[in-house]
Amino acid sequence: MAIRLKYWGWGYENESLTATEKSQLLSALAEGYGIRPGPELPVPGLAEIDLADSRLRLPAPIDHFSTAEPYERVLHSFGQSQPDSIRIFARDFSHAPDAVAYPRHEADLITLFDWASEAQVALIPYGGGSSVVGGVTPDINGGFRGTVTVNTSRMNGVLEVDPLSRAARIQGGARGPELEAGLKPHGLTLRHFPQSFEHSTLGGWIATRSGGHFATLYTHIDDLVENVTMVTPGGRIVSRRLPGSGAGPSPDRLMLGSEGSLGIITEAWVRLQARVRFKATAGFRYPDFLQAARSVRAISQTGLYPSNVRIVDGVELGINGAGDGSFALLVISFESSDHPVDVWMARAAECARDGGGIPDVEGGSDPDAHLKGSVGAWRNAFIRMPYNREFLTPLGIISDTFETAITWDRFEPLYHEVGQTTRAAIRSVTGAEGAVSCRFSHVYPDGPAPYFAFHCAADPASMQEQWWEIKQAVSDAVMAAGGTITHHHAIGRDHRPWYDQQRPGLFGEVLAKAKGQLDPKGILNPGVLVDTP
Amino acid sequence: MAIRLKYWGWGYENESLTATEKSQLLSALAEGYGIRPGPELPVPGLAEIDLADSRLRLPAPIDHFSTAEPYERVLHSFGQSQPDSIRIFARDFSHAPDAVAYPRHEADLITLFDWASEAQVALIPYGGGSSVVGGVTPDINGGFRGTVTVNTSRMNGVLEVDPLSRAARIQGGARGPELEAGLKPHGLTLRHFPQSFEHSTLGGWIATRSGGHFATLYTHIDDLVENVTMVTPGGRIVSRRLPGSGAGPSPDRLMLGSEGSLGIITEAWVRLQARVRFKATAGFRYPDFLQAARSVRAISQTGLYPSNVRIVDGVELGINGAGDGSFALLVISFESSDHPVDVWMARAAECARDGGGIPDVEGGSDPDAHLKGSVGAWRNAFIRMPYNREFLTPLGIISDTFETAITWDRFEPLYHEVGQTTRAAIRSVTGAEGAVSCRFSHVYPDGPAPYFAFHCAADPASMQEQWWEIKQAVSDAVMAAGGTITHHHAIGRDHRPWYDQQRPGLFGEVLAKAKGQLDPKGILNPGVLVDTP
User: Fold this and answer.
1) Taking Cα atoms as reference points, which of B118, B92, B94, B110 lies closest to residue B150?
2) Is residue A157 over pLDDT 90?
3) Residue B107 CB partners (closer than 8 Å, separation 6+)
4) Closest C-alpha among B448, B383, B439 to residue B411
5) Separation in Å, CA of A501 to nearest CA in chain B
6) Which residues of A349-370 are buried (b: 16+ CB within 10 A; e: fewer)?
7) Chain-centre distance of CA B349, in angstroms?
8) Cross-chain residue pair A405–B482, CB shorter than 8 Å
9) Interface confidence (ipTM) of the complex
10) Which of A116, A437, A513, B513 gives A316 a disulfide partner, CB atoms 3.0 to 4.6 angstroms apart?
11) What gap in Å lies between CA B315 and CA B257, rounded to an integer?
């Protein structure tokens, strides 16, 4: 039997944190912040999950590419959010989808849309299932007669490669490693590496405006899209494949960020890179996060466009075993398929030193610089982070992240207010201190994308309510400080209340009209993005 | 009396081509291509223009900021397109607006929208009036009781500057020189320099997705916009000011490209640059335009992001007195506010030489390199080009341009097919050869934005019909070859038939819904972008 995906956490069943990683994490939380695990909840066995009978009988043409097998229904009951994880360990699968469809091509999708529109069945588009905001959690209100999750993983090919333009036509269901494997023989790469890379898809990235590898310039998948093909209940939308255009409001920008509520993205032409040949990474330590942030601002306005320019504060370094908590770390990388990047790095490093940074790793052209020092330690932890939650949740430890973007003039107030609010909310909700940390995930000339993480010990009996109280407080604080409710995690169901505040009211009405046009019966991802008018 | 704007051409009444420029242009056209002027039509005097009586009596609160003075109605009867120019010299002002409003603030706009919606009056948003695609030409069908052009030039302030984020809040009616003057004391600049810079506005740039100074990276105004405020008949839309976001489909991207048909852009926060301190320009000659294009492709994929990387073919150089027709010219520039750009230039120049380019100017760090050789000669002609039309049209010479963008894999076929179609259309329509030229205005890693120009001698009696026949043929050819109907000239009234083909049908229906929501009576710029459902 093939190794299966976990339904209680990240990745495959045979993968998790090592014993060493687990004990490092627990001792960092306990020693640094007094956050101690409670009694451990066991992983729910498939047999002990109380799964309601499927409410749907799928017609033969759909049944043909669908399944109601318990493992599949359980696997597709959740994404990867903190509340998802809490409900998994609380064995609450009450909203499991009635079936999971695996369409093989657009014709299957159209059959599915037609049937679901007629039969009042909600459809949940599902790429890799990596949503951390409830985007694929089929928790539906309204008069639906059932729910089918639509897993796009069978539509996962690299269909065409254009080496001259460095572009490829790729199906929406292709996961990161799949599409990279398809591009490799051509010497090309998309180099879009969200933390979810292994278990997320091109279509999912486009639907959620995913943020990737590049900390500057091509930050979002938006910037890598030449065109999009989306199948909707109302028909097919194919935008013209172009390197740039000025012909009216961009049709791609309606599909980018549509979060499965307007249609399913079946294909896109995307912009590629040649393989990286030159690389340089350097790390700098700062006594203070805000001091590091000022160096990042200086670098962001040089026009050097580093592929990586991130800062991580002492708390996050400490929790991840990459620092002793006494310093913040700035990581700068440049990469090129064309030319040595030493001159670029020298100037950026000068900015860092001018701002008071002390070299941690100064790799120059050492190809392994990014693996050394605190830089390397944090990088390794970053790759492993998605496995933390399934370890901490059953121990009663909330471990969540949220992120935003803000212009430089309002960044420091936001940093203070959001940090204080998060700490105060944890204290007020749980009665104890938590650990709250911040890093930058992406940086623009006019402002950073701050990324916050928090850990705290929860009451196992009310862990969900405690999480939600904290989540509300921090989201309110982000909005009040002028940030966006999400820079790249998407809206999903969890961010919807704040998205509704952030979105200009009239634009919301236009989106509702778009929804009415493309999905007149409102069957697609109900609760996400916008409601059917 | 203050010097007034010309109603028959570009800029102010006291500005035009010099005698030397005129004779250079005529002899280049005659000697190179046998294109000779016919008898000259005089500029129409204001008194000889047959202007219908205004059909509207404006209510006092609107009359207060409006005028029906003949000069104003005549001035606002046309933009700067070839068909506009032909009609001006044919003295056809039959569609002149009934009045011109100069709102002072958003409250005036709201008053205007409410009245016009009620009174069935069409409103034509007008920034600098530089549209070359009929975007401000009040040629309206449908049951309107009159037309008022809405000139935004009184709402032209730089309201706020944020030096930390390098951003400013600027009113939509600010022209290029006005906003740059407002930014200068802060040591900042937008550096968005479309050819229309002097007589176009920030709001117009946003409404038409203007293409600016930078040939790579920040090509369109889109990339410089942090937020947009738009007043519509249905209400006000203000997007959140952010350096980046991933929260749903971008509201800004609905307003970018809306071409005055959804609302009037009253304000935007835009991203600025520090003043340029380092600069390098080099020019290379190639025997063949396509060979030069291959060098541009190589440079576009290096990740060097030159501020300028344009090629101009021998025909265009010849007509503009910047070459003898025997070579194509590649111009490469780098600029920075932060660091010397020699290393960048050295690598780009290497690509140019590897591709067979022969140095024309190799300026290195010579700050005046861009003023020398063929590079400098073409640059000077470029700045003066907007004055050509008012000189050539009355001599019976059609002089028009059109532009597109295309991926590299389809560029060479497009170049051949569009070029051949243009030459054949001129031959078939006018019975003589014309001059057809091509340059690149902007360049992306995945393809260029080719910009075509053509000149031909027309029959003065049917100049408009001849132009339209050629325009149809070349637009069909651009579409058939896979290009966009516009990269940065916008759609206006002239490109509407091809935009309707290019736009995905369902997206068109969504836009129509947006129009219905924001402008329910369809009073805004009728005929442009999308029709009221």
Assistant:
1) B110
2) yes
3) none
4) B448
5) 10
6) bebbeebebeebbbbeeeeebb
7) 30
8) no
9) 0.96
10) A437
11) 32
Identity of the residue numbered B50: D
Amino acid B417 reads: E
Rounded to an integer, the average pLDDT of A490-509 is 98
Per-residue DSSP letter, B285: E
> What tokens does A419 get?
């940090």
- CA quadruple B320, B322, B325, B327: dihedral positive or negative? negative
- B2 to chain A, closest Cα gap in Å: 36
pLDDT tens digits, residue range B382-406? 889 999 999 999 999 999 999 999 9
- DSSP, res A27: H
Phi, psi of B237 (to 5 degrees): -115, 125
Show the tokens assigned to B259: 């071409």
Q: Distance of alpha carbon A516 from its chain centroid, rounded? A: 27
Query: Burial, B324: exposed, middle or buried (Cβ in 10 Å; 0-12, 13-18, 19+)?
Result: exposed
CA distance linking residue A128 with residue B144, whole number of Å: 53
Q: Please, which residues have CB within 8 angstroms of residue A433's CB and are 6 or more apart in sequence?
A: A33, A34, A423, A426, A427, A456
By percentage, how much of chain A surpasses pLDDT 90?
93
Locate B218 and state its tokens. Answer: 């920040």
Q: Which two tokens stand for residue B413?
A: 């076929």
Q: How far is CA A475 from CA A171, A470, A530, B232, B240, in A?
A: 34, 9, 19, 30, 15
Do B115 and B89 contact (CB within 8 A), yes or no? Answer: no
Tokens representing B204 are: 């117009």
Cα-Cα-Cα-Cα dihedral of B129, B422, B388, B449, to 10°?
A: 60
- Contacting residues of A for B511, CB less than 8 Å apart: 248-249
Number of C-alpha atoms within 13 angstroms, CB side, residue A248?
Answer: 30
B165, B258, B338 ranked by CB distance to A409: nearest: B165
Q: pLDDT class for A523, splitting at 50, 70, 90? A: very high
Handedness of CA B505, B506, B510, B516 (dihedral sign): positive
- Strand segments, DSSP code E, in A172-217 are 188-189
- Asked whether the beta carbons of B325 and A362 are under 8 A apart, the reply is no
Supply A426's token pair: 């944890």
A:206-225 residues touching chain B, CB 8 A cutoff: 208-211, 217, 219-220
Q: Flag if A249 and B254 touch (Cβ within 8 Å).
A: yes
Q: Is the pTM of this model over 0.90?
A: yes
Contacts of B126 (CB under 8 A, 6+ apart): B76, B100, B136, B149, B150, B151, B152
Cα separation, B205 vs A309, in Å, equals 32
Q: Which of A327, A294, A322, A323 is nearest to A309 (CA)?
A: A294
The minimum CA-CA distance between A95 and chain B, rounded to whole Å, is: 25
